Amino acid sequence: MTDAGSSSPPEAPAGCPAHAGAVRLTGLEYQQTPSQLYREMRRNHGAVAPVLLDGDIPAWLVLGYSEVSYVTSHDELFARDSRRWNQWEHIPADWPLLPFVGYQPSVLFTEGAEHRRRAGVITEALEGVDQFELARDCQQIADRLISDFAGSGQAELMSAYAHALAMRAAVRMCGMPATGDDTQQLVEDLRISLDAAEGDDPVAAYGRVGARIQQLVKDKRDRPGPDVTSRIVLHPAGLTDEEIVQDLISVIAAAQQPTANWICNTLRLLLTDERFALNVSGGRLSVGEALNEVLWLDTPTQNFIGRWAVRDTQLGGRQIRAGDCLVLGLAAANTDPQIWPDSYVGAENAAHLSFSNGEHRCPYPAPLLADVIARTAVETLLERLPDLVLSVEPEELTWRPSIWMRGLTSLPVQFTPVVQ
């Protein structure tokens, strides 16, 4: 099988796990309707499919819910240190996925006791965030952003609201100014690193992110405050500045873009699905239900790269070789017909894999903090602008061309102008 509009893939590099049916993770079908592609891949390949990443680099896409759960629960078989990869000799220096897979002294790539030490520091730093204060801060941020466009009767919510709010909340938690050119450039470079568009240089952007966070760490060593960065810097575990910089990049990146997409994907659901839209201005179905349904059906992080096989093993009927790369198909796993045989996803069920699973899942309480940000953003907007409607037909909305993130290119809305 190949993706829409493509021919059979060329002969892959030596040691390739993929056979002649390997799927390129590119193309319009993947960008706009990936769920259809996942179904087709399951039908043709089962729960673990051979795929080709950028530059036709071979990997496995794990599509099954139980298979993703197994991989993420067995670090002794599928580990995070990407230096194990058996394809490094084929990876060019400017490969666009290097910010994802190039080894860094980050909590993301640590294993065993070292991972528990590093993740423990992040967990304790995040536990210091007061959720009531965070909700209050987010409401204040939301009110200011809404006031900027409330008088015009129209807005593009991706840029003017969802991304701006998540960005300001994330940097404020970490002790940076919520506004300013410096902060805005950091957020733009994070976007390029995580979800590069055509013409972007993700490797250079990631370098600029590192430099900015390095300065933040230096500032907090000199003048600590009541923020996540200071708590990590002052933690008795004694992380080095290099370790702190890498871990903070992970924290800020996870708090910003995925949360912004979670907000916007939820607003899209509320404004387009009659189960919600008919009730938005009254006793609407719970915003919490909508947020949870989005995590099942339009999760902000579609796929995550990845895990690397520690030794030869089997998964989903496939022979996985030592050093093979596995991409975690979080979106595909969440809609696995083995767990939803009637194609019904229960919004009240929170057993999705959107925050991953196992020892390397998002550290507690990160999902709770993301929920506070997203829920406050959605509820505040609906309370301030109760007659909010889309200004285009639902089918005119388009998704960003990314296999990693699930987010709209824009969300244009209109409403009765509010005189400030």
UniProtKB/TrEMBL annotation:
**Which sequence ranges form a coiled-coil region, renumbered to this chain?**
none
InterPro entries according to UniProt = Cyt_P450_B, Cyt_P450_sf
Report the leader peptide range.
Answer: none
Give the source's domain of life in one word: Bacteria
Membership in a protein family: Belongs to the cytochrome P450 family.
- What protein does this entry describe? Cytochrome P450
